[in-house]
Every structure is written in C-alpha cells, then in structure tokens.
## 1
Amino acid sequence: MGAFLLESEPPRQAENMTLFRPASLLRPTPLFALGLMLVLATILLSYSPGIARGFEFDDLHNFIGLEGIHNLDSALTYIFTGDAGPLGRPLALASFAAQFYAWSDAPEIILRVNLLIHTLNTVLLCSIALRLARDFIPTLRYPERFALLAAALWGLSPLLASASLFAVQRMTTLSATFMLLGLLCHLVLLPRLARHPRRIALALVGSLALFTVLAALTKEGGALLPLLVLCLHLTVLPLRQPELPHPWRHWPLAAFALPLLAVLWVLAGGLSPHAYDPRSFNLTERLLTEARILVDYLHIFFLPAQNQLGPYHDDYPVSSALLQPAQTLFCLVLLAVLVILAVSKRRQWPFFALATLWFLSGHMLESTTLPLELYFEHRNYVPTIGLALALAALPFTVPPAYTRLTSVIACAYLALITVVLWQTTTVWGDRLLSAELWAASHPDSTRATQNYAESLKRQGRAEEGLETLRAYSLRHPDEFGTALQVAYMDARIHRSLPPLTDFIHHDARLRQGLPDLMVCQILDEILELPGDHPFLQDDGIIMLSELGTALLANPKLSAGRREIRFCVNRFAASIALTRRDLEATMLHLEAAFDALPLLGIGLQLVRFPASAGLFDAARENLARVRSAMPRNPILRRAWEEALNQAEIELKQETARDRAVPP
C-alpha cells in the first residue's frame, strides 16, 4: 500500500469542465488491483483476533428466534416479524436466518460473514472514490491512489470495529452495503444524464429509491441515502447541471426533497411531550450531549487510541446546560463553525465541505431528536465515509511539490491506525481481558460492570463478581437495577433468602427508582430456576410476591418502557399462579398484554379462565385478544391459526362441562 502511494507516476492534467465528464473508460491498473488486495488482506488480518469474541448483550433479543427455524415458513416468520426497529429490518434478519445453524454455538461463523461484508463495503467505497476522482474531479491527481487511500482509511478505522464485531450490527454494515451500491449506481448514471435525459432521470430517481428502500429495510438509517447523495451534489460534484427538458429538469425534487421531508417527519417524533419518559435525560439534554459526542467521534476517528474504544458508553456524562460541563458550549460553537464554513466555502474547499456535511447528515437520525441511547461507536459506520474521502484527498490536492511528503505521512498514519485496530480487535477477542479493561476504562458504566461480573462468574469467581457489583452499587446509590441484581446474586450464590428479603423490605429504590431492563433479566432468571430452589418454596414464594407487589407500586413503572411493564406484570402473574390466585393471575396477565400484546400471553388469557370453568370470561378474553391482532400479515396468520384452535378447544371444554350432570 505504501509503495503504491509513493510510486512515481505522472499526474493527469486537469481539464476545463463545466458539465459532467463522460464516464471514464479507463480500467484499473494491475498495480491498483494489487494495492486493493493488500488493503483487504490487512483488514482481514487486523480483524481476525476479534472473531473469537462470541455473542453480546444486544444479540440475544434478535437471534433467539433462530432457534425456531426448521422450515421455510418458520424462516419467513422470523424474517418478517422482527421488532428491532420500526420497519422490522427484514433484510438483515434474512441474512441471519440464512445462518440459523450458527446460533448459539458458533458465533464465529456469523462474525466471519460480518467481516466479509465489511471488506465488500471497503471495495464499494474504493470504487466510489475512483469513480468520483476520474469522472467528476479532474483536478485530483492520482485517482487510483486516492481511491485506495480512502478505502484503507475507512476500512481500517478502529472506530468502526464494533460494527463488525457485534454480531447484530450486521444490520448496520449490510444497510451500508445497499447505501454504497446506491451511491455507486448514482455516479455511474449521472454522466449519461445529458445524452439521455428522460431515461437517465428516471433511472437516477428509481435507483435511488430502490437502494434507499433496501437499505432502510435492513436498518432505518438507510433512509438517509438521498441526503448523503445530496451532500455530494452540494460539494464535490460539478455545480452546473445539463439543461434538461421539462419535467425531467426537476428530478432532484423527487430524489432529494421528498425523502428529506420524510426524515424530518420521523425526527419530529422525538418532539412528543412523553417521548423521553423512559430516559434519564430530556430532549434538550440529549441535543446538548450529542454535540459533545459528535466531537468525540471526530477525535477518535482522526486520532484513535485503544483505551478510548469499546462497546460500553452508557456512563457518558449528560450535558444539563451550556456550561455543564464546560466543553458543551465549545462543541456547539465548533460544530456551528464547521457547518457555516462547509456551506459558505463548499466550492473552494469541496472535500472539507463534504466531510462536514456528510458526517452530520449521517448522524441526523441517531444523534438528534429521537429518544435513543446517547453513544454507540457503530453509528459512525456510514458518517465517517465522508471523513475518509476528505482525508484521502489531502495528499493529492496539496501543491505537487508536497505530494511525496504527504504520501509518506499518509503511509505512517495508515500504519498507526492499523496497529490500533489490531490492538482493539485483540482485546475484543479475549472476553475476560476485555471485560476487565472496559470496566476499568468506564467505572461508572452499568453495562461494563455487569459484563465484568458475568465474565468473573463464567470463570468460577462468582463471589468476586458479586463484590464488583456491590462496590458499583455503593458508588451509585440511585441505580435501581444494579442494587436488585446485587441482592439477587447474593441470595442465589448463598441459596439464602435474607439478602433479597432485606432489599425488598428496606430499600427505597425498589419503590421510587426508575426500573431498567436489568430488572427484567433478573425476573426472567428467577422464573427459570429449578423447582426445588429456595426461592420457589413457601417463604420464597411469599418473598417473590412481595417483590412483584413492590415493583408494581413504583409510580415510575408506568412511565418506563413498555417492555419493563410487561415483564414485571408477567412475573407477578407467574407468582400469583404458583400461589393459585387466579384473580391476581388474570389481573397481571391483562396488564402484561396491555403493555405488550404477545400471542402467548393472549392464549393464557383464554385458557386459564377456561380451565377454571369460567367460560364466559374466556370468550370475552378471546374477543379481546382478537381485537389486538397485529397488522403484519405473517404474524396475523399465526395469531388467527392459534386463536381459532383456542376457540375450538374452548367450545369443546364448554360442551364437556354442559354434558356433566349437576
């Protein structure tokens, strides 16, 4: 790679161009192909230590359905019933369904495919950069070197490691594949617009719509593709458009304006008064904090260090005001200055403008008004493409006398980020080492601490894991989930009720804190305990009943996430059923169904009263469940089949009951 960048070759002459150049007929040279293979080999080798990582905290929810795949119908059910995002992400789920055999014993098979997708995306970016340089930017010297450098800077960026090493983040990388294909298709078609205006204008709009839909059905961020193409048109692509007959001259309106309005409509959802109820921050705090996070992303992309990278950033300090913390105002001003310069100097500094506008546009969905979590490294997978293109252009836009010097600097920088990437993936590949390092780097991260405790537990060091959680809980007295986890682990390790009983009776957080998903994890673990466990004996059942009652009495439960309301009520229903309290069981099942209408709970609403001879109540519940059937046609068919069978069984039980003499 370095030899290729430094190889002496005459730069092409800049051409006077007012419209798009014809598509280049030049083919890549053998040296270019060799350089690209070297880049891809470096990526594969650098990522190889991380393949041993295995599955992570976000994987279970999306992969657990793979267990049910045994034929085409079950595969289609898995693909089209996803709930990871508003659109269901069926294309990403289809790629997982094709590897259903790898869950849950062979995560390395899924991760290897993730890595292949990343290398494919690197090839696509290289093709896009080459097409840009050859066909649209004649002043850029050495287009093949520029394309290779852009691909290497992006493909080897340590900031993007988590996008491939998190199994579930194939949603991000595969969505990027469709976005890159859409960009490449756009650049291939654009030079032909003047010669065939009607046909090419339709093809431009149609291809952009097609790849936007494909990308969005993989992950919703793919809907930003038209906005990113617009960034190209505003910066590095030629200013003048060929004169087109009416109405074809208005093709940009359909290609850019309408999708942008759709994105703005989605973002308006974050302005709802109750959108942030489940979060510990509000809309203003999120926007202030994201300004700092975006600057941090930029810093880590350009100057990466292994100790800055990792999956756990839930401890990121929230900005409560412009000067709390003080760097909030600085980051807001910096971003504003970057935008102003990018817009005002977009023709004088096209690559700077591209980097700025592309990066911020790429973060428009996940880093603005929507009430998502604050910080994830994989969100930079597409936004950093513009940064890589701009950085790669530097050696070939400086005065020719400095080209060799800047190429040497570029090679040294590539070596640096490659070393950091290898360090990062090596840490990822060692579960215990990574857990310890991430917990040390993020001592206030709940997830990092829990991950470290779980790693210690897997090593047979459960007491150490418990003490790790206990120390964290003492430092964070307001955190509810971890405190409950400490009490539960203490009671379970020692097979003793008092630690959990004391927590239930005396800890105010149980009744006043904001419940989180850790509560659901603990409740699910309790329900899966063997029947002879002390928790499920007489005193234990009383204790668990008190736990459910205390959780339900918490006023913040109703304001929290519906998944948490669901799991707490399902837990309370299970305990009430164990105590043979049918009335309480039905009450909690109804509340669970209202929070999250799932078929399994709906069937219980029908079968439990029927088993007690309450046939009228069972029929009422059957009608209630039917009214909540999902719109998804595949899910709806499954519901109809199950509910029809439940109705048949209910009629049979009713008939048998009437046949029994009084």
## 2
Amino acid sequence: DVGCLDTNRVILAVGKCTYIHANYVASPSNPRKCIVMKGPLPHTCSEFWCMVVQEETKNIVMLCNLSEQNASKCAEYYPREAGEPMVFEGDITVQFKTKEMLKFPFETTAVIEVTTLEVSVPGFSMHSCSHYHWVDWPDRGVPPADMAPLYFLNQFSNSREPIVIHCSAGIGRTGSMVLLQYAMEVLEKGDVLKSMSVYLDEVRAQRSCSVQNEQQYLFVHQVLLNFLQKTGWLPQSLDPALEAFRKSYRKQTKGF
C-alpha cells in the first residue's frame, strides 16, 4: 500500500468522513492543478463524489479498468450507460447523461471514453462533470508514446478547478501523466526544461512514489522528445540521436 502524504492531502468538509486517499499536486501555473488519488473502493465511493462536488471538479481522469488480469483495480463508482442513477451512502446520486469516444486528429491506438455525468450531493446544487476513461493503458506499463497523451491532456489543460486523476494505486499511470503535464506547462511558459528528475522529485514530494518504474519514466521522455521533434523545437542535427533513443526505448518497453 502507498501512504497518503498528510501535508497536502484533500480534507473533506462534506459528508461523514474527512479522510480520502488523495493529494493536491501543483503545476507551474496552478497550486492545485490536480487531485491525485487511488481508485475509489466500494466503501469510499461516497467520499469520492463528495470530494468532486466540494472541489467543483469538472474533469475526472481514470487510467485503469475496473478489473485487470483477474484482479479488482477500482470500484464501479459511476454509471457507464443510460438507466437508473447510481446511489451511494449519504443519498448521493450519480446520473449518466452522454458518452462518446474521444476523437483524435491523427492515427493512434489510444481508446478513451468520455462520459458526461450529473452528481447530486445533499446540500449542494446539481454538479456536472466529464469523466475520461483511458481504456487500454496497461497496469505498470505504458501505451504507445505517440501524441495521444498530449492531445488528451489538452482537453482540460485550461481547467481552473482541480483535475481528479486516478488509476489503481494512484502512482504509476497517474504519476506518469502528472509528470508529463508538469513538463508541458514548463514548455508552455517558455522556460527551459530541466532534468526530468527535478520535476519528478517535485511531483513525488506531493504524491509519494509517483511514476512506478523505469518504463513509465522513459515513456514520459519519449512522448516529450516526439513532441519537441515534431514541433521543430529540436534541430535536425539531433535526429540520429533521437532515433537511437527511440530504438532503445522500444527495446526497454517491449512487453510493457
């Protein structure tokens, strides 16, 4: 189990319980850019939705499936099709509104479902939010290092409210996306990128054990390098070195 850092954990002011396994994580532009957490459990779904409403979250990112390799990874905390709303402890209801697949303007194998939900928590007005489920990101692994992660992040990059991001433990897949987002914000500000280890230390100081293995750390590098190359930030003289890194990356992540 991964501990929840106490200094920056989300404290619930709604519902019966004040505790949830979730941390605020800052970015260069926003001290509460994300709420990073483990996947909701059967007994924490009500706390999860209380947090979403309390923080006025408009975007939820799910990077795991309910079950993977015959193991439960996350509780079924939201309705995935039309029908009766899901009801949780404390008379909290979550209603399905619409669902569509995220359309990419380029070829990719990434599969991301976007579900619009309406959440009712007693004492609050009805809350609408978008739920993004990356369906095919493997546990402890990496998806193809194409432009899909950056296009995905761009869907909610301007959100002023905290973006809730979770996988199963809330450190591997989730940490990879948070680190990637952090680096992209550095670039967008016009600053020079430092070593990724500097940014990883900053993320881990806010969410313990973020980025679970070498493959995920390399994945962040490869996505960034592909972006910098495609957008002309890097001189063509570096192309041979970039191709060598790409070949090494494929070898290191084969099977992940």
## 3
Amino acid sequence: MVNFLRYARRLFTGVHAVFLEGDMNICQEIEELRRHMRQMRKRIPAQTRALWSQDIRGNLDELLDSIKERREDRPLLVFAPMDEEINLWPWIKKRWEEGREQYFPLTKEGELRFYPASSVFDLEPGLWGIKEPVRRENPYQSGFAVAIVPGLAFDVSGSRVGYGGGYYDRFLREHKDLIRIAVAYRFQISDDPIPQADWDQKMDYIVTEEKWIDCSRYRSGVLLKGL
C-alpha cells in the first residue's frame, strides 16, 4: 500500500510538472490529468481500496460531526460509486437506517438532477451500469443540503476535475446553498493548483483516507499541517 501511494504521488508530480511548462492548453491539460488519474485508480489493489474506503467513510462521519450537519432533517445528495471509486455503500446504507433523506443523481436532458431513494430497491442500473433512481419524481429543487461529490483530481484549495461532462459543475453553480464535500483518495489531491476551466466549481471540503481538508483555509492562505 505504501509503495503504491509513493508511486501515485510521483506520477501526479510528474504530470503537474508538464502543466507548469505550458506545453498544453487548458483542455489538453485537464484531459491528460483525467487519463493519468484513471490509470492510477485502476492500479489500486482491491484490499487497499477496501481499507482506504473504510477510512474515508470514518473521516466523512467525523467531518459531518464537526460541522454539525448530521441532523436528519437535512438531506444528502450522494452518488452510487463505480467499481474504481470509493465504496460508500456501507455509509449510505447506514444513513438509510438512521432515516436520513438521500437523493441520487440522474442525467436527464443534459442536466444533472437528484431524486430521492430510501433503499437500494429504489435504484436500478442505468448508463454504464451505474445505479440510478427508479422514481423520477420529487427531485431536489433547492434549500440547505450536503452534496457528496465524486471526481478524478482535486487540489487543496478545492479545485476539482470531474469526468468531463460538466454536469456537476453546472448543478453546483445553480445551487449555491449546498455544502460541497468531495471524497477522494489522497493521491488524487495535489498540494499545488491543478488546471481549471472558468466554469469549474470548487469544493468546500475534501475527505481522504488520511484526513478531511477544509479547502477554505487554503483559499484564505491559512495552511493545514501534515499534508
């Protein structure tokens, strides 16, 4: 596990150095970063992925406790993870057991919408086998909620590189009142700025297997130790 993490960080550093040389335009830089991150995630051993996912779930609970956002009346906008992503299913099922209201994403007419699901039976395989809500009614409209956001790469100030569709960026831009929490493996986080397009949206927090990061402290110039 340690050897893989060292390799991943070296690869991220090498990719970032190419960005700094200015040899690629912003779109090419982002696509190159996506490609490398996908490769790195595929190389995570299954046992390591399981351990990291468990630690991320625990740190996500710790973060929500610290910002006092575990009240049952405040909904969660979550996502159904793919095989190479962090396994959030135990965490999601626990929230259902607590009676927490949870919404899952669905791409419809070029837009990202979130629909309620109260159990796994309210979900069905959709595009690329990703589980989607069966019921397409009563979508999340507005109001205070916590959004758990996937992605391929981040930096400590909250910049995010997603999968390329721009769905989350458009959704987050339209819903400013959401608390945005990204979940990612530590090697997906750069200490230096990553390439961003003008429309890319920033995260409020990032949760990794090592700790959770308050991105606003980096944007304000107050650095956390130990990253």
## 4
Amino acid sequence: MSVEEGDRLLKAGIERYQNNEFEAALDAWEQAGEIYQKVGDRAREGAAVGNCGAVYQALGRLHEAIAAYERHRAIADEIADRTGHLNALFNLSNTHAALGDFERAIACQQQRLAIARQLGDRRLECSVLSELQRHYTTSGNPSQARACQRDRAYIARELFDLSPNRDFQNFCTELGLDLRRDFAGANLSGLDLDDADFANANLQGTCLSRCSLQLANFCGADLSDADLVDTLAINANFNRANLQRAHLRRADLRTNLSGANLQQACLEGANLTAAYLQGANLSEANLSGASLKNADLKGSNLTGANLTAVDLTRAELNEATVSKTRFVAAIGLSPEVENQLRDRGAIVESERPESE
C-alpha cells in the first residue's frame, strides 16, 4: 500500500467519472482515500473525498455529497489547505442550492468572498460575486443581486486598467462578464469599445463618456440616463435604442438613430451631420448648437424640442412633428421652410433673444 497505488486509483476514478461510470469512479476514489489516510497524506485524502462528493452529486445523492464535501473542508482546514477549503465551499454552495437551501448556499459563498478579500485576489472575488449574484437572483433577492453585479463591474474595470489587454470585451468574457447584461450603471468612461456588441443591452445610467464607440451595435439597447458626453460613435447602430434623458453633449453621432427614443435627451453641440433619425422620438430634447446638416428627420417627433442655433442645412424635416418645437436662430432654413414650420406649430425665431 503506497501513495503510488492511491494515485493510480485516483487517476482511474477520473477516467471512469469522465465516462459517466459513476459507481466505478466512486469505488476507485473511496479506495484511494483509504490508502491516503493510512499513509498520512491528508491533502490527497481530502481531494479523493471531495471527488466522492462529486460522484454523489452526479448520482443525485445530495445529502451524501454534502457530507463528503464537509469532510473535505475539515481536512483542508486541518492542514491549512486554502485551495481545498475554497473548493469544498464552492461544492457545498452548489449542492445546498440544488436542494433549494439558498441560505446555506449563500453563506458558503460569503465565506469564499471573505477569503478572496483577505488574499486581495480580485479575480477570485469577481468569480465569487458571480456565484452570489446567481444565488441571490434565483432565491428572489434582486437588490442583493444588483449589488453583486455592480461590484463585479467595478472590479472588471479596475483589473482592466491594470492589464496589458486592450480588448475590454474579450477581457470581460475571461472574467465571465457579459457586456449586455452586467454593466448597468457602471463606469466605462474613456474605453475603446469599437465594434462591441451591445444589442438589447441593459446600460441604464452607464457612464460611456469619452468612449470610442465606432461601429458598435446598440440596437434595442436601454441607455436611458446614460452618460455619452464627448463620445465618438460614428457608424454605430442605435436603431430602436432607448436614450431617454441620456447626456450626449458634443457626442459625434454621425450614425443610425432611426426609431431611437431620445426624449428629453441632452444633445447640445452634438454632431448629427447626415444622421439617420427617421421615426426617432426627440420630444423635449435639447439640441441647441447641434449640427443636423443633411440629417434625415423624416417622421421624427420634435415636439417641444429646443433647436436653438442648430445647423439644419439640407436637413429632411418632412412629416416630422414640430409642435412647440423651438427653431431659434437656426441655420440653413429658408423663409419658405420657416413659414411651413410655423404653420405646423413650431416656434421659429430668426435671432436669439438677448437673454440667451
């Protein structure tokens, strides 16, 4: 009886487990565990016991799995095996969750979180927060789940800023984060997000100021209350995106905004030259000082919008709703077009009032 014999059985158990021969794997690992115990190799004994727990779990014998994982944890604690302790807690958490005992599942992950923070291991912390977020979501605790999501997004940005990797989308994938789901309210300012896929993403309140968003896809995304000040979004796709109350001052939006909801958005000084805004909702939006040269606003809703000092040279305004829209000192409007706009309910003034 030797460590080598135990190792042979441990390896055999792995092969049988991978072939779904669970009973045979269990037999091999139990024998390996007994050998390691007799020769005094507690680390290997703990690993074998933990493997037995995995078999019990695969067989649906969850209470036996918990007993095995608890034994693994006890051995790991006895020999100060931190990795074994973390693994045992992870397995215990998942097994308790499978039994619907989310209180214990969460408690196990919280212990892992404390260890990760004690070690200063931010990647591990991010991984544990992902597990906690999942358990909180499944157990009906959305506020706790959102707190975990916010912490994960914060850590991801912190780690990215310290990383030589310049592909944020790829970096997030490595951390198990989804750009479309996990960054609502996060700080993504100044990042290069060209070509990123944010289709149908939840980016409510997200800070994207000074980002490069060229060719990025925001089709159907929720960007309400988001900060996109000074962003470069040439040829991005904002079709049907929700940009209600978004901050878009000085943003370069020479792009597709058809059907977008820009109600009450701030677009002061934005570059919307040749932008495609068919059917967009710009009601009560502030477009003062923006460039809409050659923009297509056909069928858009400009009700109550502020277009002070806007360049509308060759802009298409047919079928646009302009009730109470303020065209003050607008550039590029002929007297004939100004009269047509007045007839449609717009407020057209050739010069700014002195107070402005």
